[in-house]
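Example record

One chain of 107 residues, shown exactly as stored in the release files.
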Amino acid sequence: MPAAPIRHQGKITGWKRVQGYGFVVPDGEHGCIFVHISVFASGARRPANGDLISFERMIDDRQRFFAGKIRFVQAPMQSITVAASELSGMLIATLFRCFILAGWYFG
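Predicted structure tokens for this chain:
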């Protein structure tokens, strides 16, 4: 039975949205690996700088490494909680400003 391919994890950097390519810096390594939009799953969201992904290191027909079979890595729940609490604080501040302005306008 063949060994399972090794998956790596890293962050997207230097992503060029219009051209559809960028690089991934694997965790614990200094170099970067080319990544193209075509290797993301069909229907997946568009990648952006700083996205954490898992991937398989592959070799193209010119013997160059590239990142393939990419999956987005889920953000830890703590990060989602912090983002939600920041959002609720912004919402409260915005509502407060609206009430102040409404009072000034109608008052």
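Notes: Residues 3 and 56 are 13 Å apart (CA to CA).
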